[in-house]
Amino acid sequence: MGFNSDHLVKFLGNTVFHWSSGLLVYLYLYNRPNFKPDSTLVKGLLGYTGVRVFFKIMGYIFSERKGLHGNGLKYNVANKVIIMTGAATGLGNMMTHTLQSKGAIIAALDIAPLKYKLDNVHYFQCDVSKPENIVKTIEEVVAKLGPPTILVNNAGVVRPAQPIDKFADKDVDLTLRINLDAPIYFTKHCLPYMIKQKEGHIVNIASLAAHMSPSQLGVYCASKAGLMSFNESLVNDLLTHYPDCSIKTTLIMPGKLNTALFQNAVNPSDFLIPVQDAKELSDWIVKEIELHRHHEIHCPTYGKITPYLRDFNMTFRRFLHKSLDGDSFMATFNSK
Question: What is the pLDDT of residues 169-181, one digit of tens each?
């Protein structure tokens, strides 16, 4: 994939801008013969280090009190029943393989048959755009494998790139049914089993498009923004109404992945807006399930700033969009 801004930011974050860098420079200056403790540089270094450490500690303490962090123990997925939607290809395929290698029992849901066979991976054909199919499939999973402990709402769809006035009604309906309605229905009908077990984990795959919305992608962006809001409300529901249940959520906000879903989309800048490696993200999601905490992942690294762009007015955001040639993203896209 080549060197890009993601590598640069990670390097700087782990070196120059790491919380300990100010302390190291201070110790270096302290041992110099001309050390001046009242100098602006020394005060700045101590202030920078103090602020970084303070927010790091307070962030952890606050999250712990609110039940956002896990208990520090690795959540063992072995023998846990996992419902994985969109398991046939792409990110769902990768997560299924990784979780299976850790001993999980996986209900692999997809409208298309699986092209692989693994022990403890059971295929269930399911058209997630139809709520009645969702309810029926969950009942079949429970009857065959047992109640689900982990749910991964991974299935997603992108319809042909069109301005909204040219978007077919059936494509609007299908996009919202699969990308937004299906995760809500799966969560609604799987959650009672998790509450009964007093444990569970729900993963929702949204998108950075919820924050940065290219032209010709309006319905997809709306569906992912809706899923992001649903996940936040779900966290508050769990903490408010089921505080004694160890049920956590992970919200995934990726940019463009190197999977088939957006393979025809044009990436405006491979350096500034790098493509996220799907295998790396898959491993990251599995790690988050094992950490078992309420958490959000914005990736690649540039994704961490996208929520703050909403604080700027539309004029600035449009300027940024044009500067990055965002209008070209879906120019040559054709869905399958």
Answer: 999 999 999 999 9
Active site residue 220: yes
CATH number for the domain that contains residue 150: 3.40.50.720
What six digits make up the tokens of 42? 């020394």
Residue tagged active-site, from 75, 185, 193, 220: 220
262: in domain: yes
Report the pLDDT value the prediction gives residue 64, as an integer from 0 to 100: 46
Question: Identity (one letter) of the amino acid at 206?
Answer: A
> What pLDDT was estimated at residue 123?
98
The verdict on 134 and 262 lying in the same domain is yes
**One domain for residues 59 and 116:** no
Task: Count the Cβ atoms, other than its own, within 10 Å of residue 101.
Answer: 10
Q: Do 107 and 148 belong to one domain? A: yes
pLDDT in tens, 43-59: 887 888 888 888 778 76
Specify whether 24 is located in the same domain as 142: no
- Cα 108 to chain centroid distance, Å, stands at 20
Residue 43 is a catalytic residue = no
Number of domains forming the structure of the chain: 2
Spot the catalytic one: 224, 248, 256, 302.
224
Q: Is residue 92 pLDDT above 80, yes or no?
A: yes
Query: What local confidence, expressed as pLDDT, does residue 54 receive?
Result: 84
- Residue 192 pLDDT: 98
Question: Are the C-beta atoms of 118 and 288 separated by less than 8 Å?
Answer: no
The dihedral through the CA atoms of 143, 145, 151, 152 has a sign that is negative
Same domain, 153 and 43: no
- With vertex at residue 270, the alpha carbon angle to CA 269 and CA 274, rounded to the nearest 5 degrees, is 110
Confidence at residue 65, expressed as pLDDT on a 0 to 100 scale: 45
Domain containing 40 equals 16-63
DSSP three-state, residue 136: helix
- Nearest one of 26, 24, 149, 23 to 81, comparing CA atoms: 149
Q: What share of the chain has pLDDT > 70, as a percent?
A: 86
The verdict on 92 and 50 lying in the same domain is: no
Query: Do residues 136 and 28 share a domain?
Result: no
